[in-house]
Design a protein that fits this description.
By secondary structure, the protein is α+β, with helices and mostly antiparallel strands. The chain contains 22 helices and 19 strands. The longest helix is centred in the last third of the chain and has 54 residues. The radius of gyration is 28 Å and the shape is globular. The protein binds adenosine-5'-diphosphate (ADP) and magnesium ion.
Length: 700
């Protein structure tokens, strides 16, 4: 075995390890529950818990935790040592029961609940997600056994991102099975969404990071003039990986492999100091867990390399931001990827039905998809001046677009455009077999061969919500199609009719052109596609009648849960912008403005000295005037921002407050940044109090 295969999943209590360590009947019961649902008996749970603890202790674990994903978007853990009652002789023993494995009861009052509970109603429960394996986390804390769990309130509402995701996976499976049955597949018993998220991130030197309170508190720069060089040379993308970054990536991979995360692809991204990591796709809930581990491990390993990992969507103005491409497909347990069109999609009726359903789902619930990809940082990307636009559209590529066109126009599709050969023109190079379809970089929801790539998701965000929404909306479309087709007298005819009808009605969602162009914004408006520009404008998509009906029908969210989530969005937005604004006030008031005042003073002294020496001091006076002018503007903007923050603080309605932050505070922040960035460009570098963009991005 190679080092990697030996390392892989070393810290995971895999099915293989369970098979080795559990009695046959208990192992069978575990597999049964994983595959078919239901509950483990308490006796079996005790056996599993004992085996898990033994394994964990053999690997140095002292504590366990129910690892969960509250609505903060990150993970939470509270460690409990295995040690238990000392016996009469004063000895400690270690224990871990089935009950402790299956259920936890963290005091949950300080997690966001969006009004679901008052702070005095503290009780929350965590429940073991048996389909995601337990693992050992190694850190300065020692070794901790982590048990992936879902997190609910005392009254049963989901307080996390995991529970709705699991519910949506069940809904999708149930409806997708009906679809494959229509085509004679009797073997499949379950259909699973598979997800592969590509994670983008930035690295920055720790010493420089620690000199920037904006990076420390907000995760992004709130000031900063552009460096003389940005990404215009396009020399970073796929460029040679620098030694320091390479050594970080090497250690990161090892840590991830130990956790069973299939880290596979790594490369430099478009912006300087920006990189990407992609794992091999996995079952949606495991992919969600793993992506959390990826983000966490990136941060931890970066620190070991005297760097910090920035997961923010827009750490630096003027260069590319970071996203997370969420690759999604649906697979049956007898090995069929329902999104695989085959070589001749026009003949693959099951695929065409699935495609028609997805077109319908995405068009009908574009607002929900948009919402699922919004977070505060992503407002700087979506619909701002970079990829992808805030308008949801689907890219199908030349081949499928042509098939859809044939179906819409004539009701039948007789052919599929084929890729052909790409002649390299060099006799020693092989001719390449060309894909039938080129890629489209600007589409938010692109078909890429046998999966859809949802490209709107923010780099720092959990991928739980986007996948919950995808599963839910497609489940609904499958359900409606299956209901109609199951009742049809003539299946073939009804199928053709339905595919044509769905595709005709929802073809407006297809767009194969340049998603960045202004022309698309106008065209989308003409087509009636929503263009939702910000996170807080997207929030209300959760509680429309259409949305509540969808989620309640499939038991994914109750209306109350949806309302609470909308509320949390407003709160999160307001709090985040508040922190950013306070950080700006701090930096401007205590660092930037004082430094410029000192610089102006030196300039003034110079002017006097030069004049006293008999010269005109024209250049010095000119510079001094420029500096004073910018300083005056900065000082006014600084006061204005403070004033608006005070105004924001007294607004009691969460939604109203969030909109005040967006429309008033953010505007004032921009107004403060502009003169400060201008000053940075004219003030002596030696007096500038914080590291520059050039240093942050190029000294890694
Ligand atoms: P690119 O950057 O060219 O889009 P990458 O190889 O970086 O492609 O990432 C593609 C991601 O999609 C990987 O995480 C990969 O595992 C995942 N993926 C591939 N096939 C599927 C599939 N059928 N379903 C879901 N995800 C997939
Ligand atoms: Mg991609």
């Amino acid at each position: 075995m190679s080092e990697v295969t030996e390392l892989f999943a070393k810290n995971v209590f895999t099915l293989g390890k369970m098979k080795e360590r559990l009695p046959k009947n208990v192992y069978k019961e575990v597999v049964q529950v994983m595959e078919k649902g239901g509950e483990l008996s308490m006796d079996s749970a005790n056996v599993v818990a004992k085996a898990m603890k033994d394994w964990a202790e053999e690997n140095g674990a002292t504590h366990y935790t129910h690892w969960f994903q509250p609505l903060t978007g990150i993970t939470a853990e509270k460690h409990d040592a295995f040690v238990s009652l000392a016996d009469e002789d004063g000895h400690m023993i270690t224990e871990f029961s089935g009950k402790e494995l299956i259920k936890g009861e963290p005091d949950a009052s300080s997690f966001p609940s969006g009004g679901l509970r008052a702070t005095f109603e503290a009780r929350g429960y965590t429940a073991w997600d048996i389909t995601s394996p337990a693992f050992l986390k190694e850190s300065a804390c020692g070794v901790i056994l982590c048990i992936p769990t879902a997190f609910c309130s005392y009254t049963g509402e989901a307080l996390d991102k995991k529970t709705p995701l699991l519910r949506s996976m069940e809904a999708l499976s149930e409806q997708a099975i009906r679809i494959v049955r229509l085509f004679g597949n009797k073997e499949a018993t379950r259909v699973t969404p598979m997800v592969g998220p590509e994670q983008e991130y930035f690295l920055v030197d720790t010493d420089l990071y620690l000199q920037r309170s904006d990076l420390m508190f907000a995760g992004r720069t709130l000031f900063g003039a552009p460096a003389p060089k940005g990404q215009e040379m396009e020399d970073h993308y796929f460029g040679v990986i620098r030694e320091r970054v390479g050594s970080f990536m090497k250690d990161l991979n090892i840590e991830l492999w130990k956790l069973g995360v299939t880290a596979k692809t790594q490369h430099n991204e478009v912006a300087p100091a920006q990189h990407e990591l992609a794992p091999i796709f996995d079952t949606a809930n495991i992919a969600v867990d793993h992506n959390q581990l990826v983000m966490e491990t990136m941060k931890r390993v970066a620190i070991q390399h005297s760097m910090r990992c920035l997961l923010h969507e827009k750490p630096y103005a003027g260069v590319n931001g970071s996203g997370k491409h969420n690759n999604w497909s649906i697979n049956t347990d007898n090995g069929i990827n329902m999104l695989d069109p085959g070589d001749t999609p026009n003949e693959n009726l099951q695929f065409l039905l699935v495609l028609a359903c997805i077109m319908k789902a995405v068009d009908t619930h574009a607002d929900l998809l948009r919402q699922s990809a919004s977070d505060v940082g992503n407002d700087h990307r979506l619909g701002a001046n970079e990829a992808p636009p805030a308008i949801i559209s689907m890219f199908l590529g030349t081949q499928l677009e042509d098939v859809v066109k044939q179906l819409v126009e004539t009701g039948v599709a007789n052919s599929s455009i084929q890729g052909g050969k790409l002649e390299t023109g060099v006799s020693t190079l092989p001719d390449l077999v060309k894909d039938a379809t080129d890629r489209n970089r600007t589409s938010p929801f692109a078909f890429t061969g046998n999966k859809f790539e949802f490209r709107m998701v923010g780099s720092s965000d959990s991928i739980a919500s986007p996948n919950t929404i995808l599963n839910a909306i497609v489940a609904e479309a499958f359900d409606e199609a299956a209901t109609e087709l199951e009742a049809a007298d003539n299946f073939e005819e009804a199928l053709h009719d339905l595919i044509k009808r769905y595709m005709t009605k929802h073809q407006r969602i297809i767009f194969n052109g340049d998603g960045y162009a202004d022309a698309w914004v106008r065209e989308a408006e003409r087509r009636g596609l929503p263009n939702i520009r910000s996170m807080i404008e997207a929030a209300c998509a959760l509680t429309t009648d259409k949305s509540v009906a969808l989620f309640e029908k499939y038991g994914i969210f109750t209306r109350t849960e949806l309302e609470s989530r909308e509320e949390i969005i407003y709160e999160t937005y307001a709090k985040t912008i508040n922190i950013e604004a306070l950080t700006m006030i701090d930096m401007a008031g205590k660092q930037i403005i004082p430094a410029v005042v000192r610089y102006a003073r030196t300039l003034a002294d110079t002017v006097n000295a030069v004049k006293a020496a008999g010269a005109s001091a024209e250049a010095e006076i000119d510079l001094l005037n420029q500096v004073s002018e910018c300083l005056t503007i900065a000082q006014r903007a600084y006061s204005e921002l403070k004033y608006r923050l005070n105004e924001a603080a007294v607004i009691s309605d969460a939604k109203e407050q969030a909109f005040y932050y967006k429309d008033s505070v953010v505007v004032a922040m921009d107004a403060l940044r502009a003169p400060c960035d201008e000053l940075e460009m004219i003030v002596d570098k030696d007096v500038w109090p914080i590291p520059t963009y050039g240093e942050l991005m190029f000294e890694v």
